[in-house]
Amino acid sequence: MLVVLVAAATLAATSFIQGYYSSEGIKREASGRAMSELEGARSDIMDIVDQAEAAVRNNLWIAQWCLERPDSLYRVPQRVVLDNPVVVGSTIALVPNYKKGQPAYVAPYAVRDLVSGKIQIRSLATEEYDYPSQEWFEVGLYDNDGYWSEPYYDIGGGEQYMTTFSMPVTDMDGKTAGVLTADISLDWLTSVAKDIKIYPHSVSTLTSRDGNTLIMAGDMPADDEKYQTYSVPVERTGWTLSLTLPEEDLFESVNRMEIIVRMLQLLGLAMLILILRVVAKNVTNYHRLNEQKERMQSELRIGRDIQMSMVPKTSPPFSDAKALDFAASIVPAKDVGGDLYDYYIRDEKLYFCIGDVSGKGVPAALVMTVTRTLFRAISSHESSPARLVYLMNNYLSESNENEMFVTFFMGVLNLSSGRMRYCNAGHNPPLILTDTVSELPVKPNLSMGVMLDFPYEEQEITLHQDDALFLYTDGLSEAEDAQSRQFGMQRIEEILHTRRDAQKQLSAMQTAVNAFVGDAPQSDDLTMLLIHYLGQVSAAREVRHLTLHNDIQQIHQLETFVEAIALEKNLDPGLALNLNLALEEAVTNVITYAYPKGTDGLVEIEAVIREKAVGFVITDSGTPFDPTARPDADITLSVEERPIGGLGIHLVRQIMDEVHYDWVDGKNRLTLIKKL
């Protein structure tokens, strides 16, 4: 009996302790889940907030420029709304009586129609609206960091529930002239709040800076109910996002468990005393080991997903490039690996690469990620393979504390002519498929990451119609079966002798490797690319030409040139105006700086018009100069603090979707592309 009483007391104490720690654990788990949900919702809100603020900041300098051109003021809010889908309305509202000779109140307002989505231009300078008394104007006029207004229903303006971000606009003399705003509709906040639902009766709320409830999803607990509340601030807006969890929901499982435990105490007290310690210890160890294993597997899966997201997956790739039949695949030996490939088309040229990082696992995957990022970043403005590999090698060599290296092959294939320039950095020579299968001639350059300033050599070859290029890593040729025999080059060439389309060719190669390896574990990452050149079949396009002398007096011809294209192609007048503005900035830069003073030179402008894009190629024979290498002007600085220059190329980048520079055949070549 004494033993039973002691056991009962022990179980009762155990039950109490278990209930206590279970409750505390549930509180911590609920807190973690609540904060995670709140942080996710806040992130969604801040994403919209950041976009709206950026829309205003990026257009302040244009607003400043337009102050001297009152007829152009309406284009500023129109541009803010047109270029930023999250913004439903925008105005540039001037200080009353800002400039003599102009109306006392000036506030052009652009708003996106809720039904049609079209941009409408209105004026807020009405007696009914009285914009100078609005909070967004009164406070925003003096807040240089930008101000988010209290949410309000905008009668006479956007006609919806919204909040407004405003920043002061100063003229060239530093005088405050007015404010530039971006309006954000608050309808989407309701769906954000409703999505925060981690328990059946949880309540999510959003309160304003002044403590007003903007959104409430769910019913608040009664005064006599206990609950837990978690909150996060929404930076810069003054809002607070909160989640209230009734304790009845939190501890429902704990209460149910307590009833079961008490029943077990009555039915199996003696047995429970004998096995409790052993079972508890084993269960704890099992859970700990299982959690560690799952956590490691989860982290590796996430790492693999991140790594695989770095390589292109378009299927089929380049559906618009009729000159190509292309396929690529990568199979890591572990959850993460060190192989990489990449490709994209720019200016009707295919940029592609393949590489293999020394080693395996997480370190190799990190170097792979850096290498692929470098390729994308540098090739965006560099078209020479040797120069590109040289720059990548220097970066990898400078930061190579673990002495890892990368074998690398890259090429640039002109889809019109078949001319391919390429550079090899210690990688397996690709195979070229013509009437036969042979190795592509490559120079024995060093792998990347080994030596600074290594002089990489560039090579060139012309692919003819129906030629193909097969690139691979040594995970293919050195794949081993259970007897440690390698797959070898002979088998690779035998498979390639049978011509198939690109994807079927890679599938046939992978099938052959799998059959050869059998049950043997994969020893290395396996990556393959096949580029089948079909010959150029140009998409329908039209070309217009204009030749100017380097005389600024000829710049007016550009407006006629662009207007003719816009009229023929029925382009939006606003788009035509922006295209002309970008082209004028780029050509003015060439006329001003390309040729020595007093020297006559030519500026060739070629307009290439496609169904979904219009592009301009500006060519001159002047001094080599890359305007895209110049950093964007810091438009947040005052006129006195801002260095001279840089605004022109900044404006061009803001208007056009792509801006590229090349030095080709002794000429500067600047390409501007706008997607339609």
Total strands: 26
The poorly predicted ranges are none
Strand content: 25-35%
Helix count from the secondary structure assignment: 14
What's the end-to-end separation, in Å?
89 Å
Largest sheet: 7 strands, antiparallel
Helix content: 25-40%
Identify the overall geometry.
flat
**Overall radius of gyration:** 33 Å
Average pLDDT works out at: 84
Structural class label:
alpha+beta
Walk me through the topology:
Elements: H1 2-66, H2 75-83, E1 89-94, E2 108-112, E3 119-123, H3 135-138, E4 147-148, E5 152-153, E6 161-170, E7 176-185, H4 187-194, E8 203-207, E9 213-217, E10 227-234, E11 239-246, H5 247-250, H6 252-309, E12 324-331, E13 339-346, E14 349-357, H7 361-379, H8 385-398, E15 406-414, E16 419-425, E17 431-433, E18 437-439, E19 459-462, E20 468-472, H9 474-477, H10 488-496, H11 502-517, E21 526-533, E22 542-549, H12 557-569, H13 573-593, E23 602-609, E24 613-620, H14 647-655, E25 658-664, E26 667-675
Antiparallel strand pairs: 1-2, 1-7, 2-3, 4-6, 5-6, 6-7, 8-9, 8-11, 10-11, 12-21, 13-14, 14-15, 15-16, 16-19, 17-18, 17-20, 20-21, 22-23, 23-24, 24-26, 25-26
